[in-house]
């Protein structure tokens, strides 16, 4: 029922655009036959009834899904009506999802709205049935004249009643002169099936009763229906009946609108306007009629079709197909030479950059006739005379791409997830920057013996800011699972304070009876926070098939000494919260040696490409293994691009060439500080030689020997 209710809301919003357009067109067509206005109301009827439509570049409406079907489960529910002011006002009052509650607030509101809607529909239908049955009983007293024509005392105005066998009911006092043109009027209704259209339109209006524009369209449609019949009578019987016809219309006026689909009353609807229209009616020239017909048909096509999807599917990651498997570009250039005996083929004609290769040796990055070879567990491809390492595709048939770029906000507003059996679009957001594309992992995070699809998106970034959003999908039906908001849990469990005493600044974090304290010289920063600020840096990882959230804690705009680590259980609820001191590392001799080695290696490798600003080791753990020291750690290199012209960078240059509104933003961001993050293992052997290893497995630990030069991506 929820889906039906939300579908009705979306159809009602879409129809509202059509109604407003038809109202405007109705004013333009004021001096033309009313049959054209009446035809346009049929487009409104289709929009109110049909949940789907065809796409067309000529569409005059903004879209057909303004309220997402999953709005009750969205962490930040929002609508997209197409009117910025309306969206902003409504979205600001929509309650966010409460992951800790058994029922989200939006589910409650949707349920309430659904109940009110059903009650309203039932009341209106009951009223309509009651009045129709009452009239039917009264009409049993009518006298049959001939065919489907009846007369009855007490009737104020003629009308048509009935669906399958419609009857024309005339007042007993009607004159013979009046009878001719009144019968023609009512017979025109029947020939055009107005006796079916009007009740059906009213039924649809009952379904959309909450929308005042739908009620307005019903009454205006009824008016145009009568006006067009009046014009038909005058056109057929001649202008000499205008005066007499108008007099009859005035004498038989009901002076009210009939709220319902039955009957079709002769004296209903805007009597003054109908008389004025009759007296001023002139049959237009044939050429005018042809132009208006073409215009009405064109407008109808524009209103009945949806806008063509402005899908801008991002180029897929460079890849190659070998032995029926897809291998993805790692960007790592190999420092070793590939033996000719290892070469297994040359790349075949490439497919589009938005497609996956389907044949042996095919690529999607425009490379043909290049050698490729086996190397370790992947493929080495000779690109521009350098061997580049390609790794086997990790995610079993899962594709995630960004869609619907909002030029104003600089954000993608839709994420499309595609598997072998399903494809679904979600109203999620991701920044417009190739550096921060969605991160996808498959793992059994809810312990149901089936892998889920975990998608991590970047919703904000900048100096000192990097915020991810996470979504967990059931792989079979692509339904989204609720995951607890880490910030809410963190704010509940963790308390902090920052006190300035003289020249010292003391920052304290407390949680579950545990506390960490840090001290600084006051001069270290010009802007100290009143408490530790968590939330400007949120990162998600999947470790041992469980989701972990890492949230940095800042004491000033530039200093982040704390990291909150929140671990999820199989119910996607947070069961453990810990806060670590990012600088609390015991500097052993091995640590000092590794730290020095890493800094020197990074300077040697990355200095030709980046301006290096800082190096940081965190989560450092070491142990003795045989005669070796082994240490695992996270390593961060803070860098910025050299002050060269950003227009030399491909994606920035392409943005400039196509006149992208976000070009300047991309240009400026290119020169801002960025981070490179690595999870490494270092082994110090008995000869004091250091060997680095990198974890290549997305699901567990699989250390493989590496060098920092392997991480160069151009």
Written description of the protein model:
There is one protein chain. The protein is elongated and about 120 Å long. It has 14 helices and 33 strands. The chain is α+β, with helices and mostly antiparallel strands. The protein folds into five domains: 2-306, no CATH class; 319-392, no CATH class; 396-478, no CATH class; 482-581, no CATH class; 589-711, no CATH class. Helices cover 31% and strands 30% of the residues.
A few lines on this structure:
By secondary structure, this protein is of the alpha+beta class. Helix content is 31%, strand content 30%. It folds into five domains: 2-306, no CATH class; 319-392, no CATH class; 396-478, no CATH class; 482-581, no CATH class; 589-711, no CATH class.
């Amino acid at each position: 029922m929820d889906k039906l209710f939300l579908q009705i809301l979306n159809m009602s919003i879409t129809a509202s655009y059509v109604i407003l357009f038809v109202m405007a067109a109705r004013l333009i067509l004021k001096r033309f036959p009313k049959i054209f206005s009446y035809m346009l109301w049929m487009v409104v009827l289709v929009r109110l009834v049909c949940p789907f439509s065809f796409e067309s570049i000529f569409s005059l409406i903004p879209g057909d899904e303004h309220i997402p079907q999953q709005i009750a489960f969205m962490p930040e529910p929002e609508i997209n009506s197409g009117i910025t002011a309306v969206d902003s006002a409504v979205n600001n009052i929509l309650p966010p999802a409460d992951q800790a509650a058994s029922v989200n607030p939006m589910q409650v509101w949707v349920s309430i709205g659904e109940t009110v809607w059903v009650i309203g529909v039932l009341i209106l239908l009951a009223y309509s049935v009651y009045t129709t049955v009452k009239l039917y009983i009264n009409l049993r007293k009518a006298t049959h004249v001939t065919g489907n024509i009846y007369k009855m005392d007490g009737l104020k105005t003629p009308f048509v009643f009935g669906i399958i066998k419609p009857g024309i009911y005339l007042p007993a006092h009607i004159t013979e002169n009046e009878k001719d043109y009144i019968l023609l009027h009512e017979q025109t209704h029947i020939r055009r099936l107005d006796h079916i259209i009007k009740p059906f339109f009213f039924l649809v209006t009952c379904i959309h009763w909450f929308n005042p524009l739908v009620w307005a369209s019903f009454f205006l449609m009824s008016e145009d229906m009568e006006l067009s019949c009046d014009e038909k009578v005058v056109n057929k019987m001649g202008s000499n009946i205008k005066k007499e016809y108008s007099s009859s219309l005035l004498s038989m006026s009901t002076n009210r609108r009939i709220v319902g689909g039955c009957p079709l009353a002769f004296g209903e609807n805007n009597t003054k306007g109908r008389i004025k229209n009759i007296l001023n009616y002139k049959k237009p020239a044939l050429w005018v009629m042809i132009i208006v017909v073409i215009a009405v048909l064109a407008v109808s096509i524009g209103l009945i079709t949806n806008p063509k999807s402005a899908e801008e599917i991002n180029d897929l990651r460079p890849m190659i197909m070998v032995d029926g498997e897809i291998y993805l570009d790692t960007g790592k250039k190999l420092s070793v030479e590939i033996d000719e005996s290892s070469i297994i083929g040359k790349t075949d004609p490439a497919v589009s950059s938005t497609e996956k290769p389907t044949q042996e040796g095919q690529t999607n990055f425009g490379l043909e006739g290049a050698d490729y070879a086996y190397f370790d567990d992947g493929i080495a491809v000779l690109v521009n005379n350098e061997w580049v390492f390609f790794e086997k595709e990790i995610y079993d048939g899962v594709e995630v791409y960004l869609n619907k770029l909002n030029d104003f906000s600089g954000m993608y507003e839709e994420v499309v997830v595609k598997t072998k059996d399903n494809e679904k679009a979600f109203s999620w957001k991701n920044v417009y920057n190739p550096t921060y594309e969605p991160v996808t992992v498959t793992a059994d995070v809810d312990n149901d013996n089936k892998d889920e699809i975990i998608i991590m998106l970047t919703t904000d970034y900048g100096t000192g800011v990097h915020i991810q959003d996470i979504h967990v999908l059931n792989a079979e039906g692509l339904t989204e699972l609720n995951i607890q908001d880490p910030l809410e849990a963190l704010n509940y469990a963790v308390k902090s304070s920052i006190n300035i005493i003289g020249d010292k600044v003391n920052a304290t974090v407390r949680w579950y009876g545990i506390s960490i304290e840090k001290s600084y010289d006051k001069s270290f920063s010009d802007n100290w926070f009143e408490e530790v600020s968590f939330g400007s840096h949120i990162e998600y990882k999947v470790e041992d098939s469980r989701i972990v959230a890492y949230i940095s804690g800042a004491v000033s705009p530039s200093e982040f000494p704390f990291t909150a680590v929140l671990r999820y259980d199989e119910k996607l609820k947070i069961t453990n919260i810990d806060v670590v001191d990012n600088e609390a590392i015991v500097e052993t001799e091995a640590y000092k040696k590794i730290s020095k080695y890493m800094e020197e290696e990074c300077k040697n490798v990355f200095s030709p490409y980046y301006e290096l600003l800082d190096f940081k080791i965190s989560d450092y753990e070491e142990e003795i293994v045989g005669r070796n020291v082994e240490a695992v750690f996270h390593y961060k290199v803070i860098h910025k691009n050299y002050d060269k012209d950003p227009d030399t960078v491909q994606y920035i240059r392409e943005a400039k060439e196509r006149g992208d509104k976000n070009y300047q933003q991309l240009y400026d961001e290119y020169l801002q500080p960025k981070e490179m993050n690595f999870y490494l293992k270092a082994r110090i052997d008995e000869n004091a030689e250091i060997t680095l290893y990198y974890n290549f497995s997305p699901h567990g630990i699989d250390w493989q020997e590496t060098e920092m030069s392997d991480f160069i991506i151009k």
